[in-house]
Amino acid sequence: MFENLTEKLQRVFKNLRGEGKLTEENIQQALRDIRISLLEADVNFKVVKQLIDRIKEKSLGQEVLTSLTPAQQVVKIVHDELVELLGGGAAQLRFASQPPTVILLAGLQGSGKTTTGGKLARWLSRHGHRPLLVSVDVYRPAARRQLTVIAEAIDMPIFEGPAGPADPLELARLARREAANTGRDVLVVDTAGRLHIDDEMMGEMQQLKQQLEPAEVLFVADAMTGQDAVKSADEFHRRLGLTGVILTKMDGDARGGAALSIRSVTGQPLKFVGVGEKYDALELFHPQRVVSRILGMGDVLSLIEKAQETVDLKQAEEMQRKLLSDRFSLGDFRDQLRQMRKLGPLDQILGMLPQVGPFRQLQQVKLEEKELVRIEAIVDSMTPRERNHYQVINGSRRRRIARGSGATVQEVNRLLKQYAEARRMMRTLSGGFMAKRMGKLKLPSALR
Ligand SMILES: Nc1nc2c(ncn2[C@@H]2O[C@H](COP(=O)(O)OP(=O)(O)OP(=O)(O)O)[C@@H](O)[C@H]2O)c(=O)[nH]1
Ligand SMILES: [Mg+2]
User: Fold this and answer.
1) Quick one: pLDDT at residue 423?
2) Pair 280, 330: CB distance under 8 Å
3) Which of 21, 75, 210, 233 is the most buried (most CB within 10 A)?
4) CA max distance for the chain
5) In this structure, CATH architecture of domain 101-293
6) Atom nearest to 252 CA in ligand 1
7) Which position has the higher pLDDT, 212 or 302?
8) Probe ligand 1: pick from 105, 109, 111, 115, max atoms within 8 Å of CB?
């Protein structure tokens, strides 16, 4: 999502690191390069100017942190300023003190409101809520049907209302009553999109807002439209009052500029990003993590969160205990790989890992789906004792295992090596996870 920017900033930092001693001139050059990188990523020019001014001020007048080299200090300043620009802590949804909480989705035509409504309901239900969906888009014949189809696909309840012509305000009122009567704690309201922000649209949104008293009014915008998304969010906020923004289609070739500008221009936080057409492709926006990703640190926390959603929690805890107590067997390794397959395409997962330390080797391992199947076959043809004590697997056992699984001895050897690597990697991962739990902040790798 920010690949180009990441690449360019990494180059700037690499150049900086190459300098033995930082002079004012080096820093100025780096700032110029950072500025160009941000502008090329389509960040709003005013936002870029403010950001560069602040980075400049801090870099030139910095107190010396003895634990960091000058180049590292610049990276740290850029990191901190970017996080600040994006609003600091992770975005949160607001909930009403009296359920049902109403979340009103607004936005221009085709921005992704209806799809996002479905994704949001799914996200809410995965996070312990009981959402109800409703579409008040009564203008396009197929619009309400579209949300019903999505609701069925993700197995979420939807309030369809009486058949035939309907009035948006009336539909919303009935849906809210239905939510209250059926113990649904969040009502997600999908609205009609318009080509432009016009008075009619605003009038309807204002009435909906007045009647529903939503805890969240979220503006759904297409990230691919770049600064236009920022402009329309800003206008919407001035006329209606928003509580946040959702940027969709961040998986496309959006350069990321809208995501980096929204908060600073509108004063409203980016709460979620849509990263695909599938219904689980919605992520809570975490400034810290996104900045780490931009600065090339990868996103281990997102990965762990994703893993936690997919993997049975009990099993994960058991796995973690095993890892820490060093009882991680080949059988566990196979189970872990099965879990990984559930997580999604491997290159996507690997993309979230930092390109450092043990992870770099993992990239080279490059597990293909086919190879996963082979690994399972190899582990399956081991005896329980071999799975639990890999040290006993000598040459003749390797030959037997290879024969039993239709693999070559080299493949068995490679698997054993990967297993050793995984043990090491997962200890690192679970170590990071524990550190996070204890509230310790780790420095981004760019600083190390
Ligand atoms: N790749 C990608 N496509 C998305 C994403 N979100 C929505 N889309 C696609 O964008 C298109 C429009 O989405 P809708 O949800 O119908 O948009 P809408 O705002 O409800 O449109 P109107 O109701 O006509 O105003 C659909 O083809 C979606 O699949 C996303 O995060 N990534
Ligand atoms: Mg729609």
Assistant:
1) 72
2) no
3) 233
4) 80
5) 3-Layer(aba) Sandwich (3.40)
6) 1
7) 212
8) 115
- Are 167 and 161 in contact by the 8 Å Cβ rule? The answer is no
Instruction: Assign a CATH topology to domain 300-447.
Output: 434 Repressor (Amino-terminal Domain) (1.10.260)
Interatomic CA distance for residues 119 and 105, integer angstroms? 12
Apex 56 CA angle, 38 and 78, nearest 5:
55
122: phi > 0 → left, psi -120 to 50 → alpha, else beta; which?
Answer: alpha
Q: Which residue minimizes the CA distance to atom 17 of ligand 1?
A: 112
Q: What is the rounded CA–CA span in Å between residue 104 and residue 233?
A: 14
Q: Which residues lie across from 190 on neighbouring strands? A: 105, 135
Q: What is the dihedral of CA 308, 314, 316, 319, to 10 degrees?
A: 170
CB of 296 closer than 8 Å to CB of 10: yes
What is 247-260 written as a DSSP string?
A: EE-TTSS--SHHHH
65: three-class secondary structure by DSSP: coil
Which has the minimum average pLDDT: 47-56, 207-216, 324-333? 324-333
Q: What is the amino acid identity at position 413?
A: N
Structure tokens, 71: 């180049």
Ligand nearest to the Cα of 249, by number = 1
Higher pLDDT, 68 or 103: 103
- The CATH class of the 3-85 domain is mainly alpha
Answer whether 249 contacts ligand 1 (Cβ < 6 A).
yes
Ligand (nearest to CA of 201): 1
- Percent of the chain's residues with pLDDT above 90: 46
Strands 270-274 and 282-284 turn out to be antiparallel
Centroid of ligand 1 to alpha carbon of 113 (angstroms): 7
Q: Ligand 2 centre from 149 Cα, in Å? A: 12
Q: How far is CA 127 from the centre of its chain?
A: 15
Beta strand 131-135 with 216-222: parallel, antiparallel or unpaired? unpaired
Task: Calculate mean pLDDT across residues 274-298.
Answer: 84
Going from N- to C-terminal start, the domains of the chain cover 3-85, 101-293, 300-447
Shortest-distance ligand to the CA of residue 135: 2
107 lines ligand 1 (CB under 6 A): yes
| CB distance 152 to ligand 1 below 6 Å | no
Atom of ligand 1 nearest to the CA of 274: 31
